[in-house]
Task: inverse folding
């Protein structure tokens, strides 16, 4: 969730809390219709209050519409489709693809450590690699070996097409994070 969405959720929740408390106080006659009328007379004609009330009402309206449509969206799967058979579809989670990619990457000589991020692409997956190599490694050669090992390994073990395998060499990679 983005920061602006969090702010809107908090704002929306605060407004709902105020409305709820007002309803409870009204139900127990702690706020009477005369109190509401007195308040409205006080703020009536105040242009600043009118503008503020309009802006808040528009924000609540627009946010309510947004929430209504976001909640009806289909959830996206974090898995790639491998095969559709007579008995149903077979999917593999992105975490599983990441784990396999790490396994294949660690088998490449002169690769000290890796961090993998796999994203679903239109016709397969993209596997982004952040690798740390030994000091004596030939970076272009080891990077090419790393790309080939991951691409062929994932394609052979999962049946997924690996579209793209970019490598970013960074000797400060720490996979414990």
Result:
């Amino acid at each position: 969730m983005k920061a602006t969405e969090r702010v809107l959720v908090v704002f929306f929740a605060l407004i709902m809390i105020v409305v709820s408390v007002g309803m409870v106080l009204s139900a127990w006659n702690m706020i009477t219709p005369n109190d509401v009328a007195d308040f409205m007379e006080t703020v009536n004609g105040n242009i600043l209050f009118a503008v503020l009330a309009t802006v808040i009402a528009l924000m609540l309206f627009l946010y309510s519409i947004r929430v209504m449509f976001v909640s009806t969206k289909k959830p996206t799967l974090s898995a790639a489709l491998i095969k559709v058979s007579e008995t149903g579809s077979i999917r593999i989670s992105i975490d599983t693809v990441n784990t396999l990619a790490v396994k294949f990457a660690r088998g490449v000589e002169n690769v000290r450590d890796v961090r993998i991020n796999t994203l679903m692409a239109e016709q397969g997956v993209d596997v982004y690699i952040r690798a740390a190599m030994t000091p004596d490694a030939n970076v272009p050669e080891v990077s090419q070996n790393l790309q080939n090992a991951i691409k062929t390994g994932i394609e052979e073990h999962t049946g997924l097409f690996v579209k793209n395998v970019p490598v970013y060499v960074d000797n400060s990679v720490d996979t414990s994070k």
In short: The radius of gyration is 28 Å. Strands lie at 79-85, 88-93, 111-121, 124-133, 162-164, 167-169. The chain has two domains: 3-70, 79-169.
